[in-house]
Amino acid sequence: MLAYAARRLAVSVALVWVVASLVFLVIHLIPGDPAELLLSQGGIAPDPAAVEELRERLGLNQPLWTQYVAYMGGLLKGDFGLSLQDEHPIADEIALRLPRTLELVGMAGAISVAFGVPLGMVAALRAGGPLDRALSAWASFALSVPVFVVGTLAILVLAQELRLVSAGGYVPFARDPVRHVALLLVPAGTIAFGLGAVVFRVMRSSVLEVLEREHVRAAQARGVSPAAIIRRHVVRNALTPVVTVVALHLGTLLGGTVLVEFVFNWPGLSGYLVRAVEARDYPEVMGIVLVISSLFVLLNFVVDMLYAVIDPRVRHG
Amino acid sequence: MGPSASRRAVLAGAAASAMLPFLRVPGARAATPGMLTFGLSSFPPSIQPWANTGTAAATVKLMIYRGLTSYAPDGSLRGELADSWDRVGATGWEFRLRDARFQNGEKVTSADVKWTIEQIAGERSTAYFRAEMQGVERVETPDDRTVRIIMKNPVATLPVWMASYHLPIISRNSPRGSFVGAGPFMLKAQERGVSLELEPFSGFHRAGLPKLKGIRAVAYADENLRVAALRSGDVDLIEYVPWQAMDAIAADQSLKLDTVDGAFMFLVFNGSRPPFNDARVRRAVAHAIKRDELVRAAFFGRGSPLMQLPIAESSPFYNPEYREGWKYDPDLSKRLLAEAGHANGLSCSLLSTAQYGMHKDTAEVVQQHLAAVGIRAELNLPDWATRVAIGNRGQYEMAVMGTAADSNDPDGIANFVDGSLAPSYVRSYGLKIDRITELLAAGRAEFDQAKRRDIYRQMEGVAIEQAPMVGLTWRSQGYAMRRQVTGFRNLPGALTFYSGLTFETTDVA
């Protein structure tokens, strides 16, 4: 088991290095000069000497390989570097924003499971009935509506027309816990609108599949009450694929909440990444992508370890 | 199967969902008397006083810093840290400072002005006015309240430069890495990328100002969310009102809309190679565009046609004889193309950006109008950073641009028509028209207003014939606010981005 874990760990570290190197190359290959951009905002021409001066100060006039070695050296020391825009430490900014995105994604996952699982079960238990058809139609609708449409409608109705919630924004939990949660619920609910439909569909088909299994039929034949069958034999078995699907989606959402963060002015990691790309802030882009990809790699590593624990054939394969 | 468990789950889920809308957000409303919540269009990348880091940063800089001169709400030049100024000799200006203080409590002195100019002109400076301040021969400080700026050449526009939000006076005793200004508000706290908190500076040199107890500037990058935040009461005032929302805001009894035609859209060309190195082809483009349609399609009717150089009608330098200098005339356009050897039309690329709707929409409308006279333009719509890089390198044939002039003085448009300046995405590439450069230099060195007017009239005449840029539309630049906000004013013409000056007189009930 130790040898297997060591092999997987080595592969994970190599993957992170490959990702870091690819991101470094790609961001430097696309057109756009951060020094030029920083000094030419507002559509006004910057002094070329000032641009050159800034390039020198930021180290952008160095050969690419020199910048690469310096960047990798910094990473080995756990240093993500400073933002090209205002020399703010990137690690501090990521440490500030990552929990916000995790919180948004986590809350969205919780809401999705909270209504997707029970509704999926109800639909499966009444498969073919009017409730099932209505819920399935809703799921199709929810899956087909883009997240920014849901978000914009939520703002229009809840904030502009009914004036029940803020149109977006963020307040730290420590400053005002109630408002923090209230501001979190609408964007999380927006993500959950589509994600909940996915959970609903997986749960429904999973329950239908479990209901057909022999051990359920045997329990029914033994005269076990329907409620007990659902509780003991159906729910647990049906939840396994739901957990897998939710975990996969949440992983994708780590870097994919851009639209929701934008629409609701939620200052998380995705929006930070988009702004960093727009400004060609190379160290910021590399730092954020590295953190997101490392989380993915870590998630994969944990899953690999879990598979090995559950099924010993994996570690010998 | 028994449905009991399912029913409970459905009921619980329904009850939870029904509760969501009733979670009223405490403190979500902006209505706190004296405290203004301002919806910025983006978070300033930096508020370094002398760098150009965009208009959102400029607005914040106007809260914190002040220059020797500035603008009154009607757009006229007024004294700020200087209360008067006069010419000295052939190339100098003398400014007499008022009794003003920096936010660290120290007096604003002539030594601070000298130090500021030295920092801007310095070897390692990245200041926007670096080149201009390198034109300073020396700065004399005969006493604490008098400063003489002697230029290498006569510069009639120096007092206008001194009003720029990129040229504030900073205390020479500022701690290293920070900048102490003399504006009406002090930066109290900020969360990077999210918001800035400002508090009033009690030692501000205008008695009784500022009126506000504080400003919270929150960045709303999404223009629709910015409007939603205003309409839901989250913010008191927003900048960069999107054109599509202006009618609804104007009709809302609880809100006020303040717009001016200050910024403008235009076309630039690659003059280093055919076909746009030929003035006839550039003029053919100028006469092919139906600007009324452009204003309707790209700016929802919120703007006006621009058929000459972008000098505002309210300016004493406005030339009514060129009002229709580049008017829509497809027959003339085709004739000019034929004269230039393109009787069967031509194909070219049209650079713009998909990142900003106004740039993209303008490019799409222009493309259609050009097609009608036989110019087949293929759109290139990269992101803004790429568009800037391509523009600076001249890797395009024709491009859409949008911005505002540096000031309401005609010298403020030199950036867009003077091909002798270094290559830049804001002006045509490789298109140097000597006569325009000469006239701009003459206008800058001339102190007699009547003679200046004549020089710029000649310059516009040359520009209409040579088309170093082609004006398309003025576009409305708007601020919107709750009725309870008073004292805030959108400054006229090119000064719209200086409206942040009026935060000193702004109040909110």
Automatic annotation (TrEMBL), chain B:
Read off the Pfam families from this record: SBP_bac_5
Q: Name one GO molecular function term.
A: peptide transmembrane transporter activity
This protein's UniProt keywords: Signal
Q: Which CDD domains does the entry mention?
A: PBP2_NikA_DppA_OppA_like_11
Q: Where in the cell is it found?
A: Periplasm
Q: Name one GO biological process term.
A: peptide transport
Q: Which SUPFAM superfamilies match?
A: Periplasmic binding protein-like II
* CC terms in the record's Gene Ontology section: ATP-binding cassette (ABC) transporter complex; outer membrane-bounded periplasmic space
Q: Which residues form the signal peptide?
A: 1-30
Q: Which residues form the Solute-binding protein family domain?
A: 78-415
User: What family does the Swiss-Prot or TrEMBL record give for this protein?
Assistant: Belongs to the bacterial solute-binding protein 5 family.
Q: What is this protein called?
A: Peptide ABC transporter substrate-binding protein
Q: Which organism is it from?
A: Neoroseomonas eburnea
